[in-house]
Amino acid sequence: MSLQTSPTSTGASADDATAGRSRRRLPQWASVAAFLAAALVAVLLELLGEFNIALVVIYTVVLGTVAAYVVSRVVEGRRKATDRLVTCLVVSAFGIAVVPLVALVWTVVGRGIERLDGEFFGSSLVGIVGEGGGAYHAIMGTLIITLLTTLISVPIGLMTAIYLVEYGRGRLKRSITFLVDVMTGIPSIVAGLFAYALFALFFGPGIRLGIMGAVALSVLMIPVVVRSAEEVLKLVPNELREAAYALGVPKWRTIVKVVIPTAIAGLGTGVTLAIARVVGETAPLLITVGITNGTNLDPFDSRMASLPVYAYYQLTQPGVPPEYAIDRAWTAALLLIMLVMGLNVVARLISRFFAPKTGR
Amino acid sequence: MAKRIDVSDLNIYYGNFLAVEGVNVSIEPRSITALIGPSGCGKSTFLRSLNRMHEVIPGARVEGKVVMDGQDLYGADADPVDVRRQIGMVFQRPNPFPTMSIYDNVAAGVRLNSRKMKKADLDDLVERSLKGANLWNEVKDRLDRPGSSLSGGQQQRLCIARAIAVEPDVLLMDEPCSALDPISTLAIEDLMTELKERFTIVIVTHNMQQAARVSEQTGFFNLNGVGQPGRLIEFNPTEKIFSNPDQKATEDYISGRFG
Amino acid sequence: MTATRTPTEPGAAKPVRRPGDRIFAGSAKGAGILILVILAGVAAFLIAEALPALSAPSDDIPGGEGLAGYVLPLVFGTLLSAVIALVVATPLAVAIALFITHYAPRRLAQGLGYVVDLLAAIPSIVYGFWGIAWLAPKLVPFYQWLEDNFGFIPLFAGPTSSTGRTMLTAGLVLAIMILPIISAISREVFLQVPTLHKEAALALGATRWEMVKMAVLPYGKSGIIGGAMLGLGRALGETMAVALVLSVSGGITFNLISSGNPSTVAANIALEFPESSGIDVNTLIASGLALFVITLAVNMLARWIVNRRADFSGAN
């Protein structure tokens, strides 16, 4: 197959070589030409059988890489050919990573957009069998639980970061840094089990509360907040702290009134990204908060719905007929993606517009 | 306001490393004292120990006595924060607070210490301090602009205004002109001559002409070699240091025959 | 730093501290210590709730073969899926990191990095949705081809699952999920390679690949390993994507493309917990404890590798 493509490309490079270059090199577009030829062959191959766009792409990449390597090997020698081969592989690797991203967004948008309507935002699942219904209760639940999580995590995370950057020394600092790193790796389901075990010890087994979900998510969010806040606080120039100390400002006021305001944009970005990270967490909420069909806005009383768990149950236990619940599940998934992406955009905007003008 | 400082047998450590050894000196009020010497000889460290600023570096400590008008700055009941309120400092690089306006920068000392002050009094203080720093006329129409919008020399004068707004007794300046162009430097030097009427000023400088121009007293710091502690080699009236120093090392350094 | 002067230092008088400073420093330190307490609490409460299962007679444990008989297949499934993910993701992630740091046009590099980071932002349950609805069906013909041509290898013995919800699919979804983690750390390390090393290689007439091979990869090796370990930690603990994608039948098998698959610890908890009560809950928590211990070990090892490298790089 590769033989079919090589004549065209070598022809081009032969012209180039005879045009006066002593050392034989392929022109810039040689690789591109190889891939175009490979694409052509791939399409022809597939037209003979049943047409499959995925296979065309795969054939193109494989054939193109082989063609570029062979041509380069013949014209430029082994070292240059290897270089080209690696370049092709590295670019393809990036391409491979983009495929799931695009496919995922495409699938979720395609299947979720239909039910992204007023009813979805406006009504719960009380009394819904089959068509209609929405995720109002789940959206409110996610908002409440996420808000509680933020209220727990941000003070603890920020104060820990302040300790690490401004006060910490020696072993305690080192062990906290290390354990924060380790904490980032706690599986989300384990965080959920922890919250359950904690509350079950005091309130008996089978307990499900919104606040339990917030505790579980905090275990996941705190280390993220600590890490990002630590990075940002370290960026505040020491000169500013010294300037404040030299004015006779106590250390704690220096931190509160000078260091934190200077770092506020970075802190905001970090907290937003940390929220984005936990807002889509499903597993801990599944086992600590559970699910309900009605609207419960009190996180200290019984089960609550949340968007990810809602999506999970709508997909896995759709009831009869299933298609309406499955549509709602996809819409919930779409909403989750929109939420996470939205938070990412907000985070970028914060860092762009609220950064202090240091003039340095 | 201006007070004298007496330093006796001062050793300054970073951890176990002795950075400056055996300094004995008396700094006169209402005058400018310049500290010169090669890099790394401990003159900045010494300056920072005068208002206990060196303590912000972990492990830094001193032995010996620093007394300001009878008040032991390192006494058991001395609060470093109070010491720094009495002894202000201006740094090498201008460091206005980037989140604050020009006005807020000058008012920072008052605001950050949450001293309550009437708006009119604060306005008055800001104006007085900016005038004291020869900056008022340049910025009076844009007090709400960020401090970092000023030029380097203006920023440094803003920092001086900020330092004198807390009405300290002593003003320490750590190479205040080394990041500035000659014209801004001149402006700062003129300012120093005015400020010495009200403050005791100690300045660290690498610029010997500057020391000769502005100071009454000059101290020369030196060290014998890498890893050795810095010492105050000679402390004399500026005129004497630059014309007829007691020590050979001083003469070598001043005449450029150093090393 | 008057606060932290140690009394052992000679001549250090007890420094005067303001109440505000004491309270603030105290609460900052308290928050730091709280982190230690939380981590200890996670272990302690899991142990406390797992104890009934540890001491229960084996007949009471679901499956009737005792705790070990219940947990071991799950641990096997967890390790298998995570290893598949690691094997697939690591080379890809390193290649992507190389592409972004050394091959892509500089102006595009940051944007391309952001695209890869987006993969990390997508919630795992959405990966599960996508895995069931898009990826699994698409993989069925590929699995059929594997069975037809490589069926003699036990991994691909088949018979091919008709839904595609197999161990290999779960591993591939996990691979996509850990890709951004490994590539982010590799990227960071590759960017720290001293320009001098790279220019030295180029000055010897090396091609770009030779420069990468000579200067970038050796320098970044421990970073790649550490990143891969972090990815492994994530893959071990990943729950919802596996719970949705994997069609579970229990038992230990290396057959990656059939419909009979062992579950993973995390997915099993998510699937069973909501409907469990009594000793079953304790059993699930005991399995969670096992997962916690495994991920903790992997993450500590990973951090140790990454931090050791940081000490030597002189970057700090």
Features:
heterotrimer; A: mainly alpha; MetI-like fold; 2 domains; C: 316 residues; mainly alpha; 10 helices; 0% strand; disordered N terminus; Phosphate_PstA (chain A); transport (chain A); Phosphate transport system permease protein PstA (chain A)
How does this model look, in words?
The complex is a heterotrimer of chains A (360), B (259) and C (316). By secondary structure, chain A is mainly alpha-helical. Chain A has two domains: 113 residues, no CATH class; 234 residues, MetI-like fold. Chain A is built from 14 helices and no strands. In chain A, helix 2 packs across helix 3. Chain A is flat, with a radius of gyration of 28 Å. The N terminus of chain A is likely disordered. Chain B has ten helices and ten strands. Chain B is globular and about 55 Å long. With 259 residues, chain B is of the alpha/beta class. In chain B, helix 3 packs parallel to helix 6, helix 4 packs across helix 6 and helix 6 packs parallel to helix 7. Chain B has a domain of 174 residues: P-loop containing nucleotide triphosphate hydrolases (Rossmann fold), CATH 3.40.50.300. The longest helix of chain B has 14 residues. Chain C has one domain: MetI-like fold (Orthogonal Bundle), CATH 1.10.3720. In chain C, helix 2 packs across helix 5, helix 3 runs antiparallel to helix 5 and helix 5 crosses helix 7. Chain C has 316 residues and is mostly helical. The two termini of chain C are 21 Å apart. The longest helix of chain C has 38 residues. Helix content of chain C is 73%, strand content 0%. Chains in contact: A-B, A-C, B-C. At the A-C interface, helix 4, helix 6, helix 7, helix 8 and helix 9 of A face helix 1, helix 2, helix 3, helix 4 and helix 5 of C.
